[in-house]
Amino acid sequence: MTSPPSNETEKNNGHLSIKDWSEDDRPREKLMQFGAKSLSTAELLAILIGSGSRGESAVQLSQRILSDCENNLHDLSKKTLESLKKYKGMGDAKAITIIAALELAQRRMDTPVRDRPRITASRDAYNCLAQYVAYLPHEEFWVLLLDRANKVMARRRVSEGGVAGTVVDAKRVFQPAIELLASGIVLCHNHPSGNLQPSQADIDITKKLQEAAKALDIAILDHLIIAETGYFSFGDEGLI
After folding, report:
1. Beta bridge pairs of residue 86
2. Burial of 203 (0-12, 13-18, 19+ CB in 10 A)
3. Does the model's pTM come out above 0.85?
């Protein structure tokens, strides 16, 4: 049985183990000291993986895996157990941990909000949705489902597209609203480019969904365009 490489061996190979890093650079220590949001995606993934292999730290392995997914967690979530195990240093336990963590993240997004904040302004809706779409490298379309008191019942991702747009199917927009008997919804999509101005396609789909909502007796309260730089509200601008 071959013993694991010592720190000295890894230094000689030009690689540093996590134990050799300064504490500020260690993922677990960074999380404990500064919180999870201070970590990069690769560092968070490295915590799940736990350890790398000879000549490669857990963070370096995570960076390699993410690079193959174009740093897109949605693409990572599509990887199978067998495809993850093809990476050197990845066995059943590590691959299963990644798959389980990504599934939990998806279920979290699909779980009704417990505290059910009330939406009284566009900023309230933005606060409920920005964390999911503001920093994505591709477009996604979401809906915020509200009860008669405008309290949040749930949030749902309706579609996922590319950098320039995403297809919005009215049936998928209203399906969760009908299932949960929502009285109102807030539409939302992101602009990876950072441009907050609505395109003509954005305006057209909003009008189309408004017409469909009337037949279902569901109120569309707003449509938000979210980017890293902030948000645009159709409601605030008198477009809805």
Report:
1. none
2. middle
3. no
